[in-house]
Every structure is written in structure tokens, then in C-alpha cells.
Write a structure and sequence with these properties.
This is Cytidylate kinase. Helix content is 53%, strand content 11%. With 210 residues, the protein is α/β, with parallel strands linked by helices. It has a single domain, classed as Rossmann fold (3-Layer(aba) Sandwich). The radius of gyration is 17 Å and the shape is globular.
């Protein structure tokens, strides 16, 4: 594992985080994982990918509609068809095992999914959070999804709420807070390519890469 390194990238919706992660991984020549983790977790566990899609970056109390107050809820038949026997905590554990397994055998970049917390004991990691101004995020979302500014703002707010509750629930840390990461950067300042370059230089210095 000592030769391998990982970059864990948290991001606000509309900040360009996924694009930045893809470009960064490509330039560094390392593996990139985002939604692919759902497929891998499904294959690893033998469970339908629908389980993971519906649970993707959602804290247990959210997906269970607040029916259970405990941190690791008991699942009863009739709660929801797709999680009668599996809680989101179980699915999170499966996905966590996949992330750890991937990080053991290669250098890679993970987008979201509490990878920074899951890999907190990894000896060579860089944890980065990408944000952007509300104006830049709204503009990007309007272009990407062909929606109005009002719809973009609503989408943005819902995503922030979902991602923060998921991250805070599983990691015991605060999503987007500077103390949680090694580097927090506003992509609307440098643009996508400028942000990629900045993070790349930071990672090289932190992890002593050639």
C-alpha cells in the first residue's frame, strides 16, 4: 500500500467537482471512481445495483423516512420493498469494503461517498473539497440540465442537504468544513482547468510525488 496513494474529493453540486476529479486522475495517471463504485459494490456483494442507487449518498434516517431513530436501525418487513432486509448502513459497509480494497491495490481518486473517512488510516492520502460561488454553480447547472435559475437553485440546495447529512452521519465530521480536509478550493476563482492544476501541484507536494 505504501507505494499507492489516494485522492478523496468532496464537492458541491455545480462546482465542477466530478469534471475536476476526472481531469486530475487522468493527468496523474490514476484510477477514477464515482458512480462506478455502485457497480463494483453490487458485483462484490451480489446484490442488485438498485439497492446502492437508492441508497447512494443518503444517510440511513433519510432513506428510511425517519421511521427509525437509532444510528444503526433495525429493518422490519414492510418498511420499503428494497430495504426490508438491508439497512443503508449495511450497504455503506459493503461500499466501504470496495473502496478500501481498491485503495490497497492501486492509486486512485474517489469522488464523494465518505472515501476520506473510510480511508482515514491510509498512509498516503490527500483530502480535497471543491466548492464554488452560488452564482457559478447555478450557471453551470442551468447549462448542464437546461433548467431555469430557480430550478438550479432548488437542485443545488437539495444536493447540499443530502450530501452533508450523509457525510456528517457516517463520518462524524462536517461536510465542507475546512478542518475536515487538507485543501478546500473555490473552482469559480481559477476555473476548471486552473483548479485541476492547483490541486495537482498541492497533491504532488503533500504526497512527495515526482
Amino acid at each position: 500500500m505504501s507505494e499507492h496513494y489516494v485522492i478523496n474529493l468532496g464537492r458541491q453540486l455545480g462546482s465542477g467537482g466530478k469534471e475536476i476529479g476526472e481531469k486530475l486522475a487522468q493527468q496523474l495517471g490514476i484510477a477514477f471512481y464515482d458512480k462506478e463504485l455502485i457497480n463494483l459494490a453490487s458485483e462484490e456483494s451480489g446484490l442488485c445495483r438498485e439497492f446502492f442507487e437508492k441508497a447512494d449518498e443518503k444517510a440511513s434516517q433519510s432513506i428510511l423516512g425517519g421511521l427509525f431513530g437509532s444510528r444503526f436501525p433495525f429493518i422490519t418487513e414492510g418498511a420499503y420493498p428494497y430495504n426490508s432486509y438491508l439497512s443503508n448502513d449495511s450497504l455503506f459497509k459493503i461500499q466501504s469494503d470496495v473502496i478500501r480494497h481498491l485503495a490497497e491495490k492501486q492509486s486512485c481518486l474517489f469522488v464523494g461517498r465518505c472515501a476520506d473517512y473510510i480511508l482515514r488510516d491510509h498512509p498516503r492520502c490527500a483530502n480535497v473539497f471543491v466548492s464554488a460561488s452560488p452564482e457559478a454553480r447555478i450557471e453551470r447547472l442551468m447549462k448542464l440540465h437546461n433548467i431555469s435559475s430557480e430550478e438550479a437553485e432548488e437542485l443545488m440546495e437539495k444536493a447540499d442537504k443530502k450530501r452533508s447529512s450523509y457525510y456528517n452521519y457516517y463520518s462524524y465530521k462536517t461536510w465542507g468544513a475546512a478542518a475536515t480536509y487538507h485543501l478546500c478550493i473555490d473552482s469559480s476563482v481559477l476555473g476548471i482547468d486552473g483548479t485541476v492544476e492547483f490541486i495537482k501541484n498541492f497533491v504532488k507536494l503533500k504526497l512527495h510525488l515526482d
